[in-house]
């Protein structure tokens, strides 16, 4: 299986190891740090550094270490590619694996250097810039955990806020995986974007039991009424807590299930948002009148088999008006909208590094080229809501 396939997350499946991940007891004391920077396909563990007194006494080589993790139904064991040695440290380098996969590292020379993922303190790059928050449940809204990036601002400065809704693979309660599955969210907090477009970045996590699947659970994801109210309440609370947030520049974006939520939020609360950027989602075509004047730039891949660009899939269709992006675009243009739309061919996806030639399902990954489109990002931040 290719490196690309092993390290990505799709709408309805998250590849997570079932290896035990409890900390390992050692008679020799050392510390471990890992480097797992953000990327288009999630945070990837690229190296691990062990620190301890007189580590050189073990006379270690790369052949002495083995990494084990679960990939689908298979247990994978790999050797370390190379190591760097010092008197009091050893740094292990290997083919990158997903941070969201549990793993164990075994040292064949001494059990004292066996290590599990839980033993390691990771540098997660831009993911580390976010702090945790929670919206407490009310009579009208669900409990909702979130992560928030807060930029450095002066007291008289006004900056926008971007609400980013994750896809179906990042549901849960860890309030973490929405940051590490891909860099859709963390990209907005990167130095590259913040240097041009300073903003707050709000990244909630949908509880797993509410993941969209009309067929089996009847749940509709971000479009659950109490979730939409929780999102609205959270935005209002943050505007009160952070007076530097520019209420005329609240933006919303999301991919896959998050794009479904984006369409749902803007059609329900059109006066809240200055602009929207839905990527590979579906929406209720009967509500497009509500947003015909809103600045929108939508994205979808031509051959998306997960969320079809034109049509419907029963597990996402919570009423008969739910339809794909391109059909929505046609409808909005009929209503006089200036909506922008970018369609990605398979060639476009390959140019973006998405290996659609290995598996057609990766045509769903329109978020990779979409969020690397600097013109679109700059466009988003240039929009202003005159009704706010």
TrEMBL record:
Keyword Protease tagged: no
Keywords: Signal
Coiled coil regions in record: none
Listed GO MF terms: serine-type peptidase activity
Domain Peptidase S9 prolyl oligopeptidase catalytic: 237-320
Gene3D superfamilies linked to this entry: alpha/beta hydrolase
SUPFAM superfamilies assigned: alpha/beta-Hydrolases
An example Gene Ontology biological process: proteolysis
PANTHER family linked: BLL1128 PROTEIN (PTHR43037:SF1), UNNAMED PRODUCT-RELATED (PTHR43037)
Name recorded for this polypeptide: Phospholipase/Carboxylesterase
Organism: Clostridium butyricum
